[in-house]
From TrEMBL:
Coiled coil: none annotated. Keywords: Oxidoreductase. This is Indoleyruvate:ferredoxin oxidoreductase beta subunit. It holds the Pfam family POR. InterPro entries: IorB_Oxidoreductase, Pyrv/ketoisovalerate_OxRed_cat, Pyrv_flavodox_OxRed_cen. GO terms for molecular function: oxidoreductase activity, acting on the aldehyde or oxo group of donors. The keyword Oxidoreductase applies. Residues 2-146 form the Pyruvate/ketoisovalerate oxidoreductase catalytic domain. It comes from the Archaea. SUPFAM superfamilies: Pyruvate-ferredoxin oxidoreductase, PFOR, domain III.
């Protein structure tokens, strides 16, 4: 939900109308959380229809598979390259990534790896925010982030620009 709020804030700073809807499901019991963010010149409702998303962002790979119902022909699927194992069942991460790679507009982002090099997995949000904000062109007015979140944001933005190697500054905490 932090990622959605920050994305909404960046989009509003860039002049967009923004609506956010949180669909919790079983989130209180460790399940998934869906958050819809709609932005544009004028947005009338917060919920994205199935098959109609321009972008789908997943904090981990299994969530991306669960979100396929929102994907249309031109949707960009941005996925944190991380598999969180389901208790009692092992899933081979390479098989999960292979399933995702059947989609032509997949962007696997090493947000977890970058966040760990910065010092904490909590920075995954900021890496993905930087990546998505760059794709959407709303990456210029993100001045509210603290130093480490800003560093993670900058790494994500740089990855979206086409430079696929984490910078040396992401290695130090």
């Amino acid at each position: 939900m932090t990622l959605a709020r920050w994305l909404g804030r960046a989009a509003m700073a860039a002049g967009y109308d923004v609506k956010i809807a949180e669909v919790h499901g079983l989130s209180q019991r460790g399940g998934s959380v869906e958050v819809h963010v709609r932005l544009g010149d004028r947005v009338y409702g917060p919920v994205v229809s199935e098959g109609d998303a321009d972008y789908v962002v997943a904090m981990e790979a299994l969530e991306a598979l669960r979100a396929f119902r929102y994907i249309g022909g031109n949707t960009v699927l941005v996925v944190n390259k991380r598999v969180i194992q389901i208790p009692g069942r092992y899933l081979d991460p390479e098989q999960v990534y292979k399933a995702l790679q059947t989609y032509k507009n997949l962007r696997l982002v090493p947000a977890f790896d970058i966040a760990m090099k910065i010092g904490d997995p909590i920075y995954e949000n900021s890496v993905l925010l930087g990546y998505l904000a760059k794709l959407l062109g709303v990456d210029e007015r993100v001045d509210w982030l603290d130093e480490r979140n800003r560093r993670a944001f900058d790494e994500g933005r740089r990855l979206a620009s086409g430079d696929l190697q984490p910078s040396a500054s992401s290695m130090a905490s």
